[in-house]
Design a protein that fits this description.
4-stranded parallel sheet; 14 strands; binds iron/sulfur cluster
């Protein structure tokens, strides 16, 4: 009995883990307002949303439960009212929508509108527009949808494939990482030193705040948990940013994805979340991490089953 007690004392100990939340994390005002408007309009009558309102499965399920339909294309809309997401859309798509006799509810984020105005100004002033972003992303399609000529770049190779233009006007998808955007702007400048290059920084403030808060948090953490949808661009950018400052980064969609073995001998767990992640999803992830912390753990590195 004494041997058994001594063995348990030697084998198990309590690790004190601190959960460090990034100073800015989770849902931005643009997404929050868009969801609130969608729910409000769904109460008033049948509603179709053009594309994903947010790239978060939890939110999408909640909208579906309210009877809201998502259509990828105007041809598939069957309700009299159509909602344009926070990502915005082009004037051409809006004109087509109105021509179909649909009532349009626009939830375009004001900061996406800023990006639209920046791109329109560049085109009006004779710049060949280059967008830093994901070519097929709904926001990028909206930003470029009224242009006849443009380029979209995301990697160094994309810059190498650009053609020369006397005037190059560069803007970014609002959720791109600022460091990456600056790097690509510098690369474009180096590649075309003769061109008149104008860069308008359209990365939105909430994205910048979440990125810089993630750097501060990840620099102090032994392991980082990033909460957000798998297809959320800004969540994936947060993962990449955190991975530059912390060797152990895990992307989870919900608390069910948390694995106890990630926290072996960990003192500080960093926590951040993308701009489409609801507060309650983040809270449940944090609660799950604390649940892991509350269990005795094997010093040899094997976490007790939860
Ligand atoms: S990420 Fe930025 S631009 Fe996009 S909805 Fe949120 S605040 Fe608006």
């Amino acid at each position: 009995m004494l041997y058994f007690t001594l063995q348990r004392t030697l084998c198990y100990t309590w690790f004190r883990m601190r959960v460090l939340r990034a100073a800015h994390l989770g849902m931005c005002f643009g997404v929050r307002d868009a969801i609130a408007l969608a729910l409000e309009h769904a109460d008033a009558g049948p509603l179709t949303i053009l594309g994903d309102l947010v790239h978060n499965p939890t939110v999408l399920s909640a909208l579906e439960a309210k009877g809201i339909v998502v259509a990828r294309d105007l041809a598939h809309v069957r309700t009299p009212t159509l909602m344009v997401t926070a990502h915005g859309t082009s004037e051409r798509i809006l004109a087509r929508t109105r021509a179909l006799g649909l009532t349009v509810v626009e939830t375009t984020c004001p900061l996406v509108r800023v990006a639209h105005r920046a791109v329109a100004a560049l085109a009006r002033e004779g710049y060949h527009v280059v967008i830093i972003g994901q070519r097929d992303h709904v926001e990028v399609r909206g930003l470029t949808g009224d242009l006849d000529h443009f380029d979209v770049v995301l990697e160094d190779d994309d810059v190498l494939a650009l053609n020369e233009h006397p005037r190059l006007g560069v803007a970014a998808q609002t959720t791109q990482a600022v460091e990456k955007v600056r790097h690509l702007v510098d690369l474009i400048r180096q590649r075309f030193p003769q061109s008149d290059l104008r860069f308008l920084d359209t990365v939105c403030r909430p994205t910048k705040e979440r990125q810089s808060a993630a750097v501060e948090m990840a620099s102090q953490a032994d392991v980082v948990i990033v909460v957000g949808g798998r297809s959320s661009n800004n969540t994936r950018e947060l993962v990449k940013t955190c991975a530059r400052y912390c060797a152990r980064v895990h992307h989870v969609q919900t608390d069910a994805d948390i694995r106890p073995e990630w926290f072996d001998a960990v003192k500080v767990v960093g926590l951040t979340a993308g701009t489409s992640t609801p507060d309650d999803v983040i809270d449940r992830v944090e609660a799950r991490i604390r649940q892991v912390e509350a269990w005795p753990r094997n010093v040899a590195g094997v976490a007790k089953d939860l």
